[in-house]
Amino acid sequence: MTLDHRLIDLLVCPVCKGPLELSRDDLQRPTDLVCNADRLAFPIRDGIPVMLETEARSLDLPPAP
């Protein structure tokens, strides 16, 4: 199942309502939608973004300046 890129353009972070970036694995498959402001990654399972704060993982990297 593929992820519709038009859907990504409509989705926002459920925490801060900010923009999300698509994260891909080594094989260029979509894995997460990332909110850089909150340092959260929302998983994509079977082509469906899981936009629940309780399902998001925290990113360990420091925020970009």
UniProtKB/TrEMBL annotation:
GO cellular component: cytosol
SUPFAM superfamilies reported in the protein's UniProt record: Trm112p-like (SSF158997)
InterPro entries listed in its UniProt record: Trm112-like
Family, per entry: In the N-terminal section; belongs to the LpxK family.
PANTHER family linked: PROTEIN PREY, MITOCHONDRIAL (PTHR33505:SF4), ZGC:162634 (PTHR33505)
Protein name: UPF0434 protein RGE_32010
Organism from which the protein derives: Rubrivivax gelatinosus (strain NBRC 100245 / IL144)
Lineage: Bacteria, Pseudomonadati, Pseudomonadota, Betaproteobacteria, Burkholderiales
